[in-house]
Amino acid sequence: MNSDTILEIKNLRVIYQTDLETVEAINGIDLKISKGKTLGLVGETGAGKTTTALSIMRLLPERVGKVLSGEINFAGHELLNLSPLEMRKVRGDKIAMVFQDPMTSLNPVMTVGEQIAEAIILHNPDLRAEEVEKRVENSLSMVGIMPSRKNEYSHQFSGGMKQRVVIAMAIVCEPELLIADEPTTALDVTIQAQVLMMIRELRDRLGTSMLMITHDLGIVAKICDEVAVMYAGEIIESGTVFDIFTSKRRHPYTQGLFDSIPSLDARTARLKPIQGLMPDPSDLPKGCYFSPRCKHCMEICTKQHPERVTEGTHTLLCHLYSSLSTEQKPKEED
Amino acid sequence: MENAVSQTVSQIPEKIVFKKQSQAKEVWRRYKKNKGAMIGLVLLSFILVMLAGANFIVPYSAATKGVFSQINQLPSAAHIFGTDSYGRDVFARVLYGGRTSLLVAILATISSCVIGSTLGAISGYFGGKVDSIIMRSLDIFMSIPDILFTMAVVFALGANFENLLIALTLAYFTNYVRLVRSQVLNLAEQDYVEAAKAGGAGSARIIISHILPNAMGVIIINTTLNVAKIILYESTLSFLGLGMPPPTPEWGLMLSEAREFMRAAPHLLFFPTLAIVMSASSINLIGDGLRDALDPHLKS
Amino acid sequence: MYRYVINRLLFLIPTVLGVIFIIFLVMSITPGDPARVLLGDAASQVQVDALNHQLGYDLPFLEKYGHYVYKAVVEQDFGVSYFTKQSVFEEVWPRYKVTMGLAFIGVILSSLIGIPFGIYTAVRQYSLWDTIPSLLAFFAASIPSFVLGMLLLYLFSLKLNWFPSYGIESFTSYIMPALAVAIPPAAMNLRFTKSSMLESIRQDYIRTARAKGASESTVIWKHALKNALLPVVTNVGMSLGNLICGAVVAEKLFSIPGIGSLIVDRITYKDEPVIIAGTILISVCFTVVMLIVDLIYAYIDPRIRAKYARVRG
Questions:
Q1: CA dist B51 to A87, A156, B93, B251, C143, Å?
Q2: Contacts of residue C139 in chain B, CB cutoff 8 Å?
Q3: What is the secondary structure of A207-233 as a DSSP string?
Q4: Among B2, B3, B5, which would you mutate to test the A interface (most chain A Cβ atoms within 10 Å of its Cβ)?
Q5: B51 close to B99: Cβ distance less than 8 angstroms
Q6: Contact C241 B269 (CB under 8 A)
Q7: What is the mean pLDDT of residues C4-21?
Q8: Pairing with A164, which of B9, B274, C74, C198 sits 20 to 30 Å away (CA)?
């Protein structure tokens, strides 16, 4: 593995198996996060983004979640081969995660200071109590909360503040990789911007690599260096932010995402959502998973699964671009 | 290409309708998978059939008229459960006693459910002073332990079927008030209630057609479990002499009478116990099964 | 916090008054009158009316009520038993202590058995350690306590002759009644604790703790347990009601001179004063216990504690 890469996922397959059905959550994805960079993982709810994050952390639900195949390589270590004890040492210390809903992510009967301190003590057991307290206060002030509030309980904080506490808990051990699973989705719009800016500042200050999971392309533009678009458990498009936002070649799904953003300038009568629904992951369609909803669907799309096509840093999973020699512009249909 | 898209679009409304109709089927399917719950269902059905067909199996007189020469006989071909201290056939007494117990339990459950739920719905929906008064009164009422209150009621009214029903209803309606009230409080804030109000629906209509159906799940589970509790409580009351008066065949009474003869005639203890335990556990199994079927999250 | 305590203590008074009121109300439906009961059928109507007047029976309801409350609270005079003609208080008080003692032993025993097993079955869900205790708890919940008591009697007293089957002379004679009283609530405690634990483990903050790198045992014992035990505390308090019922039953079964059996016996003799006094005393105790439980809960749950403490800026 490249010394520039902090996390590399190869051909990961994950399923959820219950008595009733088998859900194919992740169907062979490849991901790479470079040191100090931020990768945005974009997609609708149900695409498999959170599952990816949980797989990296090895926090899939015990009896139901199964990794069928693949490699997850973090800073030279194969995470899937680590023992539970070793993995625990990684969690919180080397890789930290911030979850989506701050209202329920904190333990209501412990003070926030205690919970942050726990993160420190778990990975630095020999630290003196005063030192631990100092770090707790430090992390709180880094996220913009008064250190004196460390003895308060989570219900005494507003939603945005709670999320800051969660972030403080995540960064207090200065992890090399921070996974943020839609950290601002549950917050008010005005608070979203604040928290996002704070995340960006912290990342710049600490040099943390980040996996930012989101469905909001605006966030991607503001904070990510590279992007991967996920659909039905696959990465259907990936590249630099520049590639994704400006390339003339786009996966129809990505195009649909961009089209569905309401524009303040243009006068349109209707919004343009992507028609249809994401396929049932326990019953995926044949061929390309996006074919039932694709405007450019061709005969081959319903029969054969597309191959990955790479052009420099930009990768696409679509039959439209299989033959790259011809410069095909995607047809605009209305 | 166009066909592919339009095909998908037209499929969607069908899919949603299909999903709603099969919600009940889904619950039943989950229920079926639960072995314990199915055993409970089978057991209860068996019990109900036996009780319903009691007249065809043994005459009622066998349960109330004793043959003096045959007292305290152990189980035999003639009396498969033996006879009691008055010479009465225990099997007959168990069967007919079951009718009484189950009947009282079901009636008491229904009446306590109706009264309690109504009170809870009113309290939750109207809030404010109404809510305060009802809840405070309930608190005071619940400060009296059930058994004492029942004793007081039985003392005042005497022990017979109707009074027993009243006493049991009064003892158990409080369960429902709190339950339904919290359901209503949760649900009354939902958007579809706002929509109904905006559409001009009156309070009663909203409670009945919008809120109660959603609270149904919890109510049904609790009601089922309460039937079992009432069966146990009712037999306890009879045991203490506060329930049905003798010589009515009734499980608690039978056990009370069995006390004296435990050493010599253990079958008098065994069979009514078996009946009570079978009834209560089958209902509990069904109640638990319903709970798991309606909220599958609890299993994982 | 103090405000909450004071608040609750103050509410105790109307509650007790309310309880006495309800009991009185129920009693007033009773057909018949005390004088008739005391004098018997032979006495003439005139004599009956005179005695009724003397007893204050023909006063309007509220006056009777107020009168009773005053005498009971201020003078601790609960009247005279219709049956034994003795002071009700003297008769009732020692038996009251016996019953309440039994009920409290039951609370402690049922908590000591039920709660740890409840936690353990939740943590070891689906294993043998879960199936067997849960199965036992299930059957204990499907058996009335008097049946359990009789089974215990049959097994340990009659067949094995280990424990005495009646009375309260020795320490050993408390064992079986205590078991009979404690086992059904223990089963309830087990099931309730188990579901509370399972619910707690499902929460998002458990996921956060795991993501921090906490070990499973830390997650369970530190994070889940604290949250799970909160409702369990309230539940234990409420189970006192069941325990009192169990105690009453145990008294009849094991011939223990408690207040439950006293009330049950006196029902046939229409001995109102005893029944009223007994019911009131038990209810008051029950109310006070519930109050203490609520206060404890308010103290240990930081969400409620903070509601009544000073709010920081």
A1: 60, 59, 11, 13, 20
A2: 277, 281
A3: T-EEEEEES-HHHHHHH-SEEEEEETT
A4: B5
A5: yes
A6: no
A7: 82
A8: C198
**CB–CB of C81/C157 below 8 Å?**
no
Contact yes or no for C212 and A166 at CB 8 A:
no
Mean pLDDT for C248-252 is 86
The DSSP-derived string for C148-172 is HHHHHIIIIIIIS--S-SS-SSSSH
Decide if C244 and B147 are in contact by the 8 Å CB cutoff: yes
Strand order in the sheet with A65-74: A22-34, A5-17, A65-74, A77-78
Hey, CA dihedral for C67, C69, C75, C79, is it positive or negative? positive
DSSP per residue, B41-73: HHHHHHHHHHHHTHHHHS-HHHHH---GGGTTP
Q: Are C246 and C185 in contact (CB under 8 A)?
A: yes
Q: How far is A260 from chain B (nearest CA, A)?
A: 17
Q: Do A122 and C211 count as a contact with CB atoms less than 8 A apart?
A: no
Q: What local confidence, expressed as pLDDT, does residue A327 receive?
A: 40
Residues C174 and A317: their CA atoms lie apart, in Å, by: 77
Predicted confidence (pLDDT) at residue A193 exceeds the cutoff of 50 = yes
Give the tens place of pLDDT for each residue, B212-249.
666 777 888 889 989 998 999 988 888 888 888 877 88
Find the closest chain A residue to C222 by CA distance. Answer: A110
Q: What is the mean pLDDT of residues C116-120?
A: 91
- What is the DSSP code (8-state) at residue B89? B
CB contact under 8 A, A302 and B300: no
Question: Furthest-apart CA pair in chain A: how many Å?
Answer: 68
**What are the tens digits of pLDDT across the range C151-164?**
888 887 777 766 66
CA distance B26 to chain A (A): 11
Summarize pLDDT for C77-107 with one digit per residue, the tens: 777 777 777 888 888 888 888 888 888 888 9
Torsion-angle region of A74 (φ positive above 0: left; ψ -120 to 50: alpha; else: beta): beta
Read off the pLDDT of each residue in C56-83 and give the average, rounded to a whole number: 74
**Residue A309 CB coordination number (10 Å):** 17
From chain A, pick out residues whose CB is under 8 angstroms from the CB of C306: 153, 155-156
Residues of A (92-111) whose Cβ lies below 8 Å from C: 92-93, 96-97, 99, 101, 104-111
Question: Of B144, B146, B167, nearest to B155 (Cα)?
Answer: B167
Name which of C249, C260, C275 is nearest B155 (Cβ-Cβ): C275
CB contact under 8 A, A119 and C213: yes
Option in B145, B273, B276 nearest C241 (CB): B145
Q: Which residues contact B223 (CB under 8 A, 6 or more apart)?
A: B109, B113
Mean pLDDT of chain B: 79
Q: How far apart are CA C11 and CA C238, in angstroms?
A: 18
Q: What is the DSSP letter of C87?
A: B
Instruction: Give pLDDT tens digits for B46-94.
Output: 988 888 887 777 777 777 776 777 677 777 777 777 777 787 888 888 8
Interchain contact, A107 vs C230, CB within 8 Å: no
**Beta carbons within 8 Å of B200's beta carbon, 6+ residues apart:** none
Of all residues in chain A, the one with the smallest CA distance to C229 is: A109
User: What is the value of ipTM here, to two decimals?
Assistant: 0.82
